[in-house]
């Protein structure tokens, strides 16, 4: 057992006075490219990162669920017989919401045992790295195994999304949960959010001597309210005005008509989604034909589209991306839902320190908030650890 798993086990034993049945974990994620395309039934290209959320879980003999996290002080107690999105508050909705979403999707939980659950994580919260999906997928994997449900990874990803949409109330797509469930070492997950087909695409970062830097702006975002919901609504309105169900159905050839039909702002929102979908396809193609050193321009075009057309970046993110490229990054762009969070830079390994230092200096010189910068490695998705 690693030191970390031993300390999670010890925390569980201190909280509940008995040993866990097992520990399951799931990673946060970084989206390489394809932002706000998921809920428009488009394409995304995320990878699971080497930062995880662990769920130590012990089986009980009744139908009670007790819930603790190293991130909060309180103990939450709920009954499997009385799960409802209306009665779930705060962080517990991400866990209890998964059980509720299973039942809501028709899975019979009448024979399910109660559970004692302790959550621990090294995924930064609210940094655009999807600590929420890491939590949903870690407990989803644990529930599946402990309750003998036999669900596959994609089914568990879908259940995590339902929990996030309906129990938490954040109108997000399948991107985060798909990455957290399906991630593989040194691969991105190419997900078609319309058909929900997913396949791993090799990144070859190691062999090319590249690293990915995450530059957390430390500006916190809030998905359930505010700008994210506005963008979601703009896309839905744009689709309605264009006579399609989702923006997935239109391509670059339709943009001229869209410009005539839509108001100026909605047009720019639509243009982001349409061009971003194409950039995901182009990135998959480029990775296969020319490798990761050739995707810098696509990353830059995505960053510009998020900044100018979709308007979801903040000054810290824009400047960090620019400074990273000026200091030798192959490409840089915001990742995640936006309005804060993180950007990423694809960097030759020997320039990682110089790029990080240049970004920190640029933000300080501009009088902006100090970023937290670290590397991430594309890693394995949800799994049982012990
Ligand atoms: P992100 O997914 O980008 O980190 P979200 O706002 O979607 O940000 O999700 C963050 C929320 O998820 C937290 O506010 C908390 O409610 C819940 N959460 C994430 N990690 C944990 C954890 N380790 N323990 C308890 N709750 C967590
Ligand atoms: Mg989230």
Secondary structure topology:
Layout: H1 3-16, E1 22-31, E2 43-44, E3 46-59, E4 64-69, E5 76-79, H2 93-104, E6 115-121, H3 131-146, H4 153-168, H5 175-182, E7 187-192, E8 197-202, H6 205-208, E9 210-216, H7 227-241, H8 255-261, H9 264-289, H10 296-308, H11 315-326, E10 331-335, E11 342-348, H12 352-365, E12 372-376, E13 383-384
Parallel strand pairs: 4-6
Antiparallel strand pairs: 1-3, 1-13, 2-7, 3-6, 4-5, 7-8, 9-11, 9-12, 10-11
Helix pairs in contact: 2-3, 2-4, 3-4, 3-5, 4-5, 7-9, 8-9, 9-10, 11-12
This protein binds adenosine-5'-diphosphate and magnesium ion (MG).
Magnesium ion binds next to loops.
Describe the structure.
It is a single chain. The protein is α+β, with helices and mostly antiparallel strands and 386 residues long. It folds into two domains: 3-200, Ribosomal Protein S5, domain 2 (2-Layer Sandwich), CATH 3.30.230.10; 205-376, Alpha-Beta Plaits, CATH 3.30.70. Helix content is 41%, strand content 21%. The chain has helices at residues 3-16, 93-104, 131-146, 153-168, 175-182, 205-208, 227-241, 255-261, 264-289, 296-308, 315-326, 352-365, and strands spanning 22-31, 43-44, 46-59, 64-69, 76-79, 115-121, 187-192, 197-202, 210-216, 331-335, 342-348, 372-376, 383-384. The strands form three sheets. Strands 5-4-6-3-1-13 form a six-stranded mixed β-sheet, with helices on both faces. Strands 10-11-9-12 form a four-stranded antiparallel β-sheet. It has a three-stranded antiparallel β-sheet with strand order 2-7-8, sandwiched between helices. It binds adenosine-5'-diphosphate and magnesium ion. Adenosine-5'-diphosphate binds at residues 53, 69, 71-72, 90-91, 94, 119, 121, 125-132, 135, 223.
